[in-house]
UniProtKB/TrEMBL annotation:
This is Juvenile hormone acid O-methyltransferase-like protein. PANTHER family: TRANS-ACONITATE 2-METHYLTRANSFERASE (PTHR43861:SF1), TRANS-ACONITATE 2-METHYLTRANSFERASE-RELATED (PTHR43861). Residues 33-143 form the Methyltransferase domain. Pfam families: Methyltransf_31 (PF13847). InterPro entries: Methyltranfer_dom (IPR025714), SAM-dependent_MTases_sf (IPR029063). SUPFAM superfamilies: S-adenosyl-L-methionine-dependent methyltransferases (SSF53335).
Amino acid sequence: MDSPKIFRQWNLKTYKDMFDFFDGQRSRLKCGKNEIVLDIGCGPGDLTSKLVPSYFPPGTRLIGSDISQEMVTYAQVNYSNEMITFKQLDIGSDNIWNRWEKESVNKIISIYVLHWVPNLRQAMVNMYSLLKENGAMFLLLPSQIPFMTILGKIGENEEFMQYTKGAKYFHIHSTDYKVLIEDYTKMLKDIGFREVDVINKEKCFHYSCYEALYDAVRSLDPYLKDIPENLRERYSEVIQNIAYNDKGVTLEPESGFVRIDYRLTYIYARK
Ligand SMILES: C[S@@+](CC[C@H](N)C(=O)[O-])C[C@H]1O[C@@H](n2cnc3c(N)ncnc32)[C@H](O)[C@@H]1O
């Protein structure tokens, strides 16, 4: 997921989901004068710079951040301006305070990121510390999505284990909705958030064909860079086979579209 350009090509689904989430949160997203909004896991920066500003008044300062220095550099070169800057951050690290300041931001947003962070509690603790008093965070993360199950299965595939082992990239969530809501609510309240709202959403998205879905999987694949060139074709076959048999992926016979069914979690929490 270090390649900003490839990622961008296949990431349009994110736009749709972000609008849906933010439109439902408009009143809570309202900003006062000169507020600072931190986007965690901004990727190539296009979402931060093109869409996010439409929810905030002029004068708001946006900081996009990402664990990948490659993403941050790409975003800084292509999208920084007087309102938006980008800076590296691993939100799951327990040592971010040499480069970041406690109680320094008014709002945190994070779209499709936290399922990549193994230590979710540490990430939430960091976000709590980054927020000013009365600050709020808005997090969108998938709780069940074919990309996660497909990539999870690739990680367990014996044929490629020597290249994928060691890379435990996913935070696999419980699929029991009620438990998920209870778990998040309890964790956030324990950390100190005063107001917490966790919602689950069922969603679907259509790809024009299987190839488009495979490309989307490839754009997220954390193992691909370590697969030797001479094994790439076989590796693609394995991915396609796994995706084809995934329960969340169906071919719609009439339209020929490939449909994925997935579940998102929307989290709002105020300090
Ligand atoms: C699926 S992309 C989402 C990008 C962007 N938010 C969007 O919706 O277009 C996930 C991003 O999270 C970043 N990421 C993964 N783990 C992270 C961490 N621990 N801290 C910050 N960013 C992280 C990845 O580098 C990647 O750019």
